[in-house]
Amino acid sequence: MPDLDKIKMMIDVTTMAQDEAHDRREKKRKEEQLAEDTFKVLTGNRDLRLGDISKEDFQAFEMVRSSGLYNMWSPEALQLTELGRKLYSAVMKFYGELNEQWPDVRNG
Hints:
Layout: H1 4-43, H2 55-67, H3 75-81, H4 85-93, H5 95-101, H6 103-107
Helix pairs in contact: 2-3
């Protein structure tokens, strides 16, 4: 004879796990949207190019980031780099590509 209480409990546990997974996906989606919206505000919604960023620009950004003292989305971090909003935002947008282009900056 099937244990109905056990079956119900397993269904409830599975439902809770699915709900938690959905909540995590939704949270991640909202965080990504917030980052995208923040980027658009910082850049004035203009297209930026990787080629606009010099190695020295990336070094300034990386010095502040690697200090660990600032959230890189904070106005204080932006100000300390002395890059200006548009260039700072471009560095944030192309951070991975810049690391590949100049690996010595992050590792040096």
